[in-house]
Amino acid sequence: MKLLAIVGSPRLNGNTDYLTGQALEEAARLGVETEKIILSQHKVEPCLGHDDCASFDTCVLKDDAAWILESLCEADGVILATPVYYYNASAQMKAFIDRNYFLYTPRPEGQSESHRHPAGGRGGRARGYPAHPEEIHRGVLHGR
């Protein structure tokens, strides 16, 4: 089992990073493989919002989001950790969440789920797409 933590705080060694580390340490103690990605240490451009994702095999933005999304798709569990700024996620986390849109755009007729790949590869993912953002929202806010 693999647990991926994506940290959206711009502050290295801040509270969000510390608490995420504590959660990952406990998971590792229980035998879970863990990985932590700190978004501020990578290049994740904001979504272009062109609404044409379905016509591309990979996202047109070439940055670190592709391999981070790949890790997200391969993980068994995910922690999205962010401080709250002005009643919202940090800019780093918001940019990453917006880039997930590529995974959920409708596929052209006849195109399989495994055809599109965040990093451009073919053959699908080990475990498929993560939960739809609506499902994540319900689970986080309503404990389902």
Structural overview:
- The protein has helices spanning 15-29, 65-74, 91-99, 101-104, 133-142; strands at residues 2-7, 33-38, 77-81, 84-85, 88-89.
- The radius of gyration is 15 Å and the shape is globular.
- The strands form two sheets. Strands 2-1-3 form a three-stranded parallel β-sheet, sandwiched between helices.
- The chain has 144 residues and is of the alpha/beta class.
- The chain has a single domain (2-142), classed as Flavodoxin domain (Rossmann fold), CATH 3.40.50.
- The two termini are 21 Å apart.
- α1 links the parallel β1 (2-7) and β2 (33-38).
- Mean pLDDT is 82; it is low at 121-127 and 139-144.
- It contains five helices and five strands.
Key phrases:
5 strands, 144 residues, single chain, 33% helix, Rossmann fold, two-stranded antiparallel ribbon, disordered C terminus, alpha/beta, three-stranded parallel beta sheet
Class based on secondary structure composition and strand pairing: alpha/beta
Q: Any idea what the shape is?
A: globular
Count the E strands: 5
Strand content: 5-15%
Strand order of the largest sheet: 2-1-3
How would you summarize this macromolecular structure in one to three sentences?
The protein is of the alpha/beta class. The protein has helices spanning 15-29, 65-74, 91-99, 101-104, 133-142, and strands at residues 2-7, 33-38, 77-81, 84-85, 88-89. It has one domain: Rossmann fold (3-Layer(aba) Sandwich).
Describe the secondary-structure layout.
Elements: E1 2-7, H1 15-29, E2 33-38, H2 65-74, E3 77-81, E4 84-85, E5 88-89, H3 91-99, H4 101-104, H5 133-142
Parallel strand pairs: 1-2, 1-3
Antiparallel strand pairs: 4-5
